[in-house]
TrEMBL record:
PROSITE patterns: ALDEHYDE_DEHYDR_GLU (PS00687). This is Betaine-aldehyde dehydrogenase. The active site is at E265. One of its GO terms (molecular function) is betaine-aldehyde dehydrogenase (NAD+) activity. The lineage of its organism: Bacteria, Pseudomonadati, Pseudomonadota, Betaproteobacteria, Burkholderiales.
Amino acid sequence: MSSTVSTAPKKGSIDPATVIPTHRDLFYGGEWHAPASGRYVPTLNPGLNRQVGEAADADAADVDAAVKAAHAAYPAWRRMKPMERAAIMRRAATVLRDHAEELALIDAINTGNPVSEMISDANIAAASLDYFAGVVMELKGSTIPMGDDRLNYTLREPLGVVARIVAYNHPFMFVGAKIAAPLAAGNTVVMKSAEPAPLSGIRLAELIGPIFPPGVLNILSGGKECGQALTVHPLVKKITLIGSVPTGKAIMRSAADSLKPVLLELGGKNALIGFPDADVKALTDGLVRGMNFTWAGQSCGSTSRAFIHASIYDQVVEGAARLTCERHKPGMATDWSTTMGCVINQTQYDKIMKYILSGKEEGARLVIGGKHPDTEGLADGFFIEPTIFADVNADMTIAREEIFGPVLSMFKWEDEDELFEMVNRVELGLTASIWTRDLVTAHRAAQRVEAGYVWINDTSKHFLGAPFGGYKQSGIGREECFEELLEFSQIKNVNVNLAP
Ligand SMILES: NC(=O)c1ccc[n+]([C@@H]2O[C@H](COP(=O)([O-])OP(=O)(O)OC[C@H]3O[C@@H](n4cnc5c(N)ncnc54)[C@H](O)[C@@H]3O)[C@@H](O)[C@H]2O)c1
């Protein structure tokens, strides 16, 4: 099959009841394996709070077997010509595109995120495979001048077995996209999917596992025990996480024993800043988009703290409330017209509801939402109405902690120095969104904000090729760009004596 011809079905043509993958096991060494413990855990459709299947729960014995399979496959994969590796990755990208709707439906069922949005996740994963396949030849070394009697050069070599551990909010996008850079650089990969939503990772293994030589791509479902075993396994040469700050710290601590390098993409408590000269209509639109209400705010990059200048504050609060209610109505994720899903499980639902209660108790003004929707058919699912609090101050709990839910906090500001003191007070620094018509204000604000990824007069979008990652405790390292490829290589220097 050509690597570029797509045979994808037409949107809306797949029956959601048919998409759940047939396997439940662990994929490593090119084959399916039952978990050593025989343990399978139920997985839910959070929109219905109903079980949709079960998945193997990998433990340390499974991790050991998967890592050994990846280690055995490493020498041949590493020696394979880069363009041949790239061709295999492009074939995998095409298969993902062809199955985008099916994969989107699996994630919709298993996470409650609307299918209309999840379809782009499958395409983003495919684009990442294509992107890193396209830059394999750029993994270059350099020559260092040493005089006529010496040749000194560097080589960029892969690391070996790389373990990647991911979060639940975009299960397929993370499992599919995050294998790309390490594989392109010549490493083999053991991927651990997020335990609340393992099904699309299993389907990915069914679809593209066999495209790679056995052991090159290995996919495990499991929880903390599986993740921990990966962090301490001696044959794992780098460990990466997309997840929360506490998990990032735990991984760094346990990786320290074997001095494994880490790449961490962690939480956010991101600021959107509205200056007095901002285009109010565009800002309000950006404010609502930036919250990612579609997937119930469960996004590390959500701009969940909005700092709006006093001169436009009331207008923006009123506009954001109206626009949010017009655009986002909670509904079933498998319905193509749904504009907002639910949160992942009871634990997350309870946590968010607790934050909402604290907002009310600590004196913030609830503008919209704050409760489970009354809509018929949603009673059993983990739905929360899009919620906006106004008149939040920087000391409140909802102002300081990542909620990872559909809760927007709005602050009023007048003095720019005080503004940045409040914006930068939190220990997280992933994204920021700045709204102004003035170039000088925009670039000054971009410099003052302590965040790794800044939008000016925009929000929410990612750009493949542009480094994404956090300042402060939001992470270590950068992804979605050429630097991510370099993260999975190491430098060797070679010095040749030309006058022996
Ligand atoms: N920066 C980013 O790119 C990005 C993207 C998406 C989500 N996130 C963050 O992820 C969090 C939400 O996701 P979550 O609830 O799945 O996060 P989490 O930290 O609970 O879990 C993330 C992954 O780590 C695993 N894990 C948990 N404890 C572990 C341990 N001790 N050792 C090894 N692995 C362990 C989990 O099984 C899961 O696969 C939020 O904080 C969010 O901001 C960050």
